């Protein structure tokens, strides 16, 4: 008889979003391995009066099915409702939320968010990370944090990897006119947008001929451009949304990839840029520092350090041969990160840890 995995998360499985894309490939891998994979997400749960109700309605929906799965695989934010139910519970985290909350500058948040976020969001996260049978975490900083905060043992933690989309790897060198810096991510403080803009101001004052391509911002061009000084706005292009097929086009059109985030899980945008042979400049934290070997397959700088970022961009600008070499190493690093391979590792881990 086929084993049944019940998967619970706050997103519908598809190829559009980050977590949704990961779960899409996991679902395919479980089905390919002979499992029955049942997903409970927003479509199954239905309308919510408040987001905090999702875990409880998801569990109620599960109970209505009257089934006995071999395991729960549940996203961190809903996990508290699915532990200690007599069914093996595996919690997946794409960035431990308690660690994000503790590391975030809350001065930019509304009073309502500061007051309510920990109450309704972190309760289920804490309960799940404390009580789940096994944890699937995305980077070594999260692992260290969970060891310390929740007293979890290394033997109960699996560090999973994200993958890259199937692409025809055609190396594209850095020598493009104009020299174009690509930022791929939501236009939010967490992504280090102030760091990028301040570095750009320094580059302008140093007479570097640089343009900026901002994709996947989520916010429209008029909103994003207001965060840039007037004298730089003519060299900034904003693409709020793009198709998966166009991502490679934008990467091939750029000279460098920059991700100045303060907090990430393991950025899909970074891996995709590396797969396209881009020299990537990113922060020395979270999943980035698990992937990047500084000076070999990318360049690291401290979060928020716009002076260091501007220095590294200038270094790349003035030494295209070395920049190209780093890009080639980045491409090579991703050779073993197909979605089939990394998703199979997740299936194998659950298979080995489900009690028959």
TrEMBL record:
Glycosyl transferase family domain sequence ranges: 174-330
Q: Which SUPFAM superfamilies match?
A: UDP-Glycosyltransferase/glycogen phosphorylase
Which superkingdom, per the lineage?
Bacteria
Report the Gene3D superfamilies cross-referenced here: Glycogen Phosphorylase B
**Alphabetic keyword roster:** Transferase
- InterPro entries membership: Glyco_trans_1
UniProt-recorded name of the protein? Glycosyltransferase involved in cell wall biosynthesis
The species this protein belongs to is Hymenobacter caeli
């Amino acid at each position: 008889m086929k084993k049944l995995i019940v998967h619970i998360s706050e997103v519908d499985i598809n190829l559009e979003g980050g977590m949704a894309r990961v779960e899409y490939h996991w679902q395919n891998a479980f089905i390919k391995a002979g499992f029955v994979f049942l997903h409970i997400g927003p479509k199954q749960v239905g309308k919510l009066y408040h987001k905090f109700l999702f875990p409880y309605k998801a569990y109620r929906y599960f109970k209505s099915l009257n089934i006995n799965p071999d395991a729960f695989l549940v996203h961190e934010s809903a996990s508290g409702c699915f532990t200690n139910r007599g069914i093996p519970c595996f919690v997946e985290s794409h960035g431990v939320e308690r660690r994000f909350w503790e590391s975030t500058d809350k001065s930019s948040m509304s009073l309502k968010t500061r007051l309510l976020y920990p109450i309704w969001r972190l309760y289920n996260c804490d309960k799940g990370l404390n009580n789940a049978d096994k944890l699937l975490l995305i980077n070594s900083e999260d692992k260290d944090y969970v060891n310390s905060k929740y007293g979890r043992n290394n033997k109960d933690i699996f560090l999973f990897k994200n993958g890259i989309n199937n692409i025809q790897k055609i190396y594209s060198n850095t020598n493009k006119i104009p020299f174009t810096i690509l930022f791929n991510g939501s236009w939010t403080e967490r992504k280090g947008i102030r760091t990028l803009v301040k570095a750009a101001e320094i580059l302008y004052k140093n007479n570097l001929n640089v343009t900026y391509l901002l994709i996947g911002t989520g916010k429209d061009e008029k909103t994003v451009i207001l965060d840039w000084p007037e004298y730089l706005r003519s060299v900034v292009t904003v693409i709020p949304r793009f198709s998966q097929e166009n991502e490679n086009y934008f990467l091939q059109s750029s000279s460098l990839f920059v991700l100045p985030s303060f907090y990430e899980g393991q950025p899909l945008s970074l891996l995709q840029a590396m797969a396209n042979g881009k020299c990537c400049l990113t922060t020395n934290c979270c999943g980035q520092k698990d992937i990047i070997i500084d000076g070999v397959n990318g360049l690291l700088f401290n979060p928020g350090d716009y002076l260091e970022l501007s220095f590294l961009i200038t270094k790349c600008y003035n030494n295209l041969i070395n920049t190209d070499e780093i890009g080639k190493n980045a491409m090579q690093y991703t050779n073993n990160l197909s979605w089939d391979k990394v998703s199979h590792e997740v299936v194998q881990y659950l298979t080995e840890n489900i009690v028959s």
